[in-house]
Amino acid sequence: MNDLKNITIMIVDDEENNWIFMLDVLRPSNASLIWARVGQEAIDIVESGKKIDVILMDMKMPFMDGYETTRAIKKINNTIPVIAQTAYAQPKEKARCLEAGCDAYISKPIITNRLIKLIAELVNKKNN
Questions:
Q1: pLDDT tens-digit profile of 67-104?
Q2: What are the residue ranges spanned by the domains of the chain?
Q3: Do the Cβ atoms of 79 and 126 come closer than 8 Å?
Q4: What backbone torsions phi and psi does residue 15 show, to the nearest 5 degrees?
Q5: Whole-structure pTM over 0.85, yes or no?
Q6: Which option is the CATH number for 8-127: 3.90.1070.20, 3.90.1170.30, 3.40.120.10, 3.40.50.2300?
């Protein structure tokens, strides 16, 4: 398992079960985790200037979906990589996520080692 110590990941997801799943999946990586339950909360956290190295964005949320949230976040700070997470695995959906500003895409169910590798790659790319 890649060590993500000193990496802060914000998980944007309205479902508490998904947050708990991500805690279980990412805890062994040593990353710091922040949970934003809705899009506006995620935007507020980014606006606050808090250190965030990568964002895992659920695309299907109430009030403000992940597409709109990603666009707003990228206007504030376009250097934070955003990984779209969605249960919809069609190529059209992937294109829509990338069009909204997401840097990568991962479909549910999430495969742990693939997610950790993707996070590490995006953070390394950002820092180099």
A1: 999 999 999 999 999 999 987 778 888 899 999 999 99
A2: 8-127
A3: yes
A4: -95, 120
A5: yes
A6: 3.40.50.2300
